[in-house]
Amino acid sequence: MTLTTALTRRLKRPELFRDLANDLGSSSADLRKRFAVLNPSTGELLAEVPDMSADDARLAIERAHAAQEAWAGLTARARSNLLWNWHRLILEHSDDLGAILTAEMGKPLAEAKSEVLHAAAYVQWYAEEANRIYGETIPAPSIDRRMLVVKQPVGVVGAITPWNFPASMVARKISPALAAGCTVVLKPAEQTPLIAAAMFNLARLAGFPHGVLNLIYASEGDVIGRELCSNSKVRKISFTGSTEVGRLLMRQCSDQIKRISFELGGNAPFIVFEDAEIDAAVDGAIQAKFRNAGQTCVSANRIYVQSRVYAKFAEKFTERVRLLKVGDGFDPNVTIGPLINEDALTKIELHITDAVQKGGRVRCGGRRSASFGTFFEPTVITDVDKTMRVAQEETFGPLAPLFRFDDPDDVVRDANDTIYGLAAYFYASNLKRVWHVAEALEYGMVGINTGRMSSEAAPFGGVKQSGIGREGSRHGLEDYVDMKYLCMGGL
């Protein structure tokens, strides 16, 4: 795969990334079959990528399986050192990685660089955690026995990453797997394969052995997904994406009772109580709603504001939203990039039309904002109620619906009235209310007086139909190890 001049001219070290090697993964793909990677802001061709098949995925799995025993047999310190090497290279080339990310995904360059640093933080965290995979001893019931627990790597991991955070998701899945002693086959989203390839290039330079990391490109993910789920050499699947696809992968894994960890869809509530500090709540709502143009699984999808402060919040929030600038992510003044594709534009338009037909009022935005590119104006709608599609479906775009509520218990019930349970946010100052609401919300993560809570040190994941397992923190490593009990007799 070769990057076009349109992209390489933006790089400081184009020689490192111009030819994104595939020698860490499959190489049998018919090179005549390719798919294009385009800049969603400009339509520029960035690269033509080999379109791989189930046979290519099978070959990558074989390579990972062949490398598994030797990789697991290394000392924890040896694996840690390689992760530290990778971390250093990601930091050294963060500007180029940010440029690649902005070009293929569209988010503003400052956001892209921040994401790259966040990815590096995950690599750093698990470079450290590799040395802390502890077992335990258990007091035996008799003096002639010793009882121990050890932790061993699960084995080959199949990882599938999304397009909205294509750098941090690669690091968040691969780093704990490598730290635990697992080899990996990664299938990145077809919209954003270049940042994954660039990070794999740096992993190769960091010294990871051949076969430990394997990369699969494919324009149709279901073919690769079926192979990863059905191949008995793959012992675990880690997936971030929609709940609908998660259900499908879960069914495909069920025949082998394959280990899974899924981070799926969300429908995050953002609640502003009357005792909240309003300016802080506005700041938090801007962060939680419009980061990455609203294309995040933890994006504030339903903003509930108590009646007493509803008008004040709506006015201040709308004023701030009007200041957001939409455009090409390489423009330093831009704060909102494009949506990922035409389908995303269509969905947000449907949600706005439905809300307006049912009595909602568009306070700002509401339209596509350019003749070319998938840009949409940041939008605020007031007078929204639970009958509207924005109350029931994840928009995944820069649309902020404001719901009015009176009773605190009612708003918690409304917030929980969804199949999803990934993230929730609320602003309040009364300590009794803070504890009550935090414990009552049925979500895996709750942001209290903050609109941003992701950290490599914290467990990221949801409940209900928002996922299984956790990523990040020491808990994220547990998903990549098996616990083995050893009972030693005759002592």
Automatic annotation (TrEMBL):
Q: Where is the signal peptide?
A: none
Q: Which InterPro entries match?
A: Ald_DH/histidinol_DH, Ald_DH_C, Ald_DH_CS_GLU, Ald_DH_N, Aldehyde_DH_dom, Aldehyde_DH_Superfamily, Succ_semiAld_DH
List the Gene3D superfamilies: Aldehyde Dehydrogenase, Chain A, domain 1, Aldehyde Dehydrogenase, Chain A, domain 2
Record keywords = Oxidoreductase, Plasmid
> Which residue spans traverse the membrane?
none
Q: Which GO terms describe its molecular function?
A: oxidoreductase activity
Listed EC numbers: 1.2.1.-
Q: Where is the active site?
A: E263
Task: Please list the residue ranges annotated as the Aldehyde dehydrogenase domain.
Answer: 33-485
Q: Kindly give the PANTHER family that the UniProt entry links to this protein.
A: SUCCINATE-SEMIALDEHYDE DEHYDROGENASE, MITOCHONDRIAL (PTHR43353:SF5)
Instruction: Describe the family membership recorded for this protein in Swiss-Prot or TrEMBL.
Output: Belongs to the aldehyde dehydrogenase family.
Q: Give the protein's recorded name.
A: NAD-dependent succinate-semialdehyde dehydrogenase
